[in-house]
Amino acid sequence: MSSIIEVRGLTKSFNEITAVDDLSFTVNKKEVYGFLGQNGAGKSTTIRMLLSLIRPSSGNIKIFGLDLLSHRKKILQRVGAIIEKPDLYKYLTAVENLRFFAAMSGLKFDRNQLLAKLEKVGLLERADSKVKTYSQGMRQRLGIAVALVNDPDLIILDEPMNGLDPQGIADVRQLINHLSKDLGKTVFISSHLLTEMEQVADSLLIIHKGRKIAEGNMQQLLNPEQTKIEVETNSAKDLEQKLQQTGWQNKIISANGRKITMQMKKEEIPVFVQQMSEMKVNIYSIHTKNSLEDYFLSLTAH
Amino acid sequence: MISLLKIEIFKIFKRPRTYIAFAVIALIIILIQVALKFGGEEYVGLMLSGMGDSFEKVPPENILNGYLVCFIILNLLLIHVPILVALVAGDAIAGEANMGTLRLLVSKPVSRAKLLFVKFTASVIYTLLLLIWVAILALFVSILVFGVNWLGVARELEFNVMEANDVMWRYALAFCFAAIGLICVASLAFMLSVFSDNSIGPIVATVCVIIVFTILTQMQIPFYDETIKPYLFTTHMLGWKGFFYVKAVDGVTVKGSIENLPAVLKSAAILVLYTLGFLGIAFWYFNKKNILS
After folding, report:
1. Is B292 contained in some domain?
2. Chain A residues 56-85 with a CB less than 8 Å from chain B
């Protein structure tokens, strides 16, 4: 698999503060690469360096195999991006915004072509409305249309789900999957919505205080050994007593009120459910809690 | 480049604030024209009061014509137009940063220098359109309303008279000179705009610089005449008046003459140098600026 982004030893300091510290990672072609970190971890600084908005203090960025500093224009012709919230020209219409940003990429589209692009993000009916009349979700969709206007090979999305309602989030998730799986685009996405990241990303990079603390594909990072489940029953105390009789007691993490949290291998879950059923334990619900969130919090707790 | 420039100009003229400057200029010029139409004789009398009896027999309507009205308007207005120029030039980069669109612009495959060049060129075009608007209202409308005759320009110790057919070319050059002066102001506001992420800052800063420099320029203190005034761009912005100061032989104006052309050209050159200096700083800083807004 060929690499699209290669970052080596990337560091950025603002006076005394090191925002990004010796960061290295590789993003492969057609991959949805998730970029995780708490607020202030250095995500936006890294993304801005990838887009040449900020000059690195040291380190090297290669995109499409080319050095970013010396081939900036050539690289950016093949990149589309949303950086934080997509602030567009509020006093212009969607068509005017799209035409302007297409021109910035050296492209010229007629009105019908622009309308077709707006149709893809569901803004056809509001194509001639000024952006100041748009909702946050509509602005986000227009931002995506702007990011895709030059048909980029690499799409960089910084918190693309910020401010979106559940339907908007689902639409963006679907779009990312479409871009990656159907169109073969490479997507580099940062988000603090861990559950969303879990659903769209193939690989993950987690940074904390500017430094990489984990990297790998989702399966590697979310170890099945670590699967947590939350069981809802009549009484957690009663269930805890029954579990002690059956040898599951060492899997218990906590028991409170009607809920009991356990940790076990993924393949043990159906065995557990079957045994509970045979023991006629009233189980109202079971949720797996083995999530990216747990993993993320365990890494960034210190 | 041309398509980017077209869109940049389109963006400027899509904003209501752009038209405020045109409306303000129209309002001021019309107010001056109305005042001179109905109270012009008194104004002319006041203007000639220090000139002895040479002009006593001249009918005031001969003196108060379109050319003089335009000169009066420019005298009053050209010191204030820079403020209106700052509204757009000061907003050029800082306004984008404020709106959050700067990061999107800089992440596009256009060099920062080209982006800055397009933005500055758009500001210059706006400035020139504003000046053409001034010319249309102040010169051509005044000619229509007041007619043409010889132009008399009062100075501290003398009164320069130019025949009617010796005036228009002077206005053409004066407006060209004013364009150089206003572009200099635009470049100052533009430079300050590059340093800021909020357009109010560069606009206010430009206006403050112009006010302070203008006060210093007009201050009649001999100490400043040689130490500070020659270095202020506002001093040289008044150079357009030089086209209306004429040579005279035996009290008779030499047609087509300019009293001190080298001084006018020197002022123009200094304004150009200031412009290049402001732009040089703007390009240097913007090229290395971290876009954090």
Report:
1. no
2. 72-77, 79, 81, 83-85
